[in-house]
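Fold Annotation — chain and its backbone

Fields — amino acid sequence, structure tokens

___
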Amino acid sequence: MEVNPAVFSDPDLSYARDGGYSGYWKLCQAPDTDYLIYRVKNTSIRRRQRGPLFNLGTILLWYCASGYRRHGNKESQCHGYHRWFPAPPTCRRRSRSPSTRRPQAGTNRNTYLDDGCEIPKLRNIVLQAHYPGKGNFERVKKNIKTFPEKTKIRFVCASPDLYDLKGNRVLTCGKRRRWDGDFPVCEKACGVAPLQLRNNRILNGRRSEPGYWPWMAQIARWFRMPTSSGESDKSLIHYCAGTLVKHSWVVTAAHCLVQSHTTVLLNESMLFVTLGTNELYNFKTATETLPVKRLLIHSRFLEGRNDIGLMELELPVKYTDYVVPLCLPDPTEGFSVPPVRDGQLGVITGWGYTEFDNTSSDFLREGEIEIMNCHKWCLYEEIFCASTDEGEKKNIAICDADSGGPFQMFSDIGGRYRWFLRGISQFSPDGCQGCSGFVDVGYFLDWITENIALPKSTHG
């Protein structure tokens, strides 16, 4: 393959999908099309060359050849693994012959529409139209994509239990064949695990199935490890866990992001985040393995207090059945933070030690525990504790390498039951048995949402 020298530089060593060290996971290939023209952002040359490779993060602007009109996104960014996001547009002919003109929506077949607004193919969205002079909204047939002026279109997600509509819910066709706003998208709903919904299941200290906790993030760190020859070798080791809450953001514990027993942040290049797999170190099954762009910790983090941090990923991830964000309590969605009370049940998940013997679990494990006051540290206002004393479940607790993972609860959010992030795994004072301590996410909700919403230039 040809590599475009204008935008491609020698790749750094990064863990690739095939488990080896390679930089080619960072590349994207230009679409193979006769009509789509692209231009690298901030350059002046337009190209229609097939197959060149572009580096991770490259932004292409899209145009269509003469006689064609663009349908879809104006620009796309390389996300690695030969994937552009948003997807490149398509090019369609501007004019139609009389034999191929479409009948006007809502009229008989003998009435043709020369002027009207078009809607491109939208994934997972059902259209409902309210035509001028007609009654209520009615479902639009799949073969109708053009609508007369003043038509109102309502957008509904095809699977409302699994998707949330982001953007305009209703658009009106105006003059000059233009809609009065941007088209919405249906994104995977937070806190909903599609693969979990398809199976009846029992919790409590067992190995988790793939895709059952799609917001789980493995946090790996480069360490110098001794070899048989006496020399040290650089190895990528599972270090902590985290929770995906937005396309580019992972919530974790602050002590996972600093040098030991200090408040000094680690270098971002030392950390990698893996999403979409329940198996430790299996990069072949992982949907995403991404470097970290930015680390943030709470300004009052010190000696176990205010132990919360954020990781901004180098690129936003694409949601799938195996990669879904976990909900944060959001009053605007009709869901306020419930108070922590003894007796509430939650689920903990992680790849941490199954015994106190420095051995991590090769597979994600899950367990159900109950909120209770089981340690003196539980009296701090931003910390709550949980444990269980019921027979075989008494050893369900967090342990080393579980730090930063979620304590998740199931609740009604905006009229739908979903999982939401209630706590962050912090400590296990009794040798990984009995009591476990968690950071109360509700206490830091404003801090999380404010930092995620800030523009990049304002981050310290």
Notes: Residues 445-453 form the longest helix (9 residues). The chain has four domains: 14-93, 98-188, 206-326+448-458, 331-442.
